[in-house]
Amino acid sequence: MRFCELKEKDVVNRCDCKRLGKVCDLILDERKGCICSLIVPGPFRLCGLLGPDQEYIIPWNKICQIGPDIILVEVCEEDVLCPRKRAGGLPG
């Protein structure tokens, strides 16, 4: 499967059936050559007008199934929601 196919799929949390979003990036282990985590943009702020300032970092071992349209994960949302890192290391 290619990344362009993976990023078109909705990520759904099996615990509460909530749609988390679509994959926007990956974290790779360069030494092992495998995917460590999926990154999904977090919830939008101010009625969706402002972009997310957090993102879901979902470990690969929390993925239950990758189907034709969705990726099922089993996570506690609070555990995988992290502050988004700014490009170039610039402060918030």
Characterize the structure shown.
This protein is mainly β. It is built from two helices and eight strands; from the N terminus they run H-E-E-E-E-E-E-E-H-E. The protein has helices at 3-6, 77-80, and strands at 10-13, 18-22, 25-29, 34-41, 54-59, 63-66, 70-73, 81-83. The strands form two sheets. It has a four-stranded mixed beta sheet with strand order 2-1-7-6, with no helix packed on it. A four-stranded antiparallel beta sheet has the order 3-4-5-8. Mean pLDDT is 84; it is low at 88-92.
Compute the CA-based radius of gyration: 13 Å
Task: Give the low-pLDDT segments.
Answer: 88-92
- The helix fraction, in percent, is under 10%
Instruction: Give, in spatial order, the strands making up the sheet with the most strands.
Output: 2-1-7-6
Relative strand content: 35-45%
| Total helical elements | 2
CA(first)-CA(last) distance: 35 Å
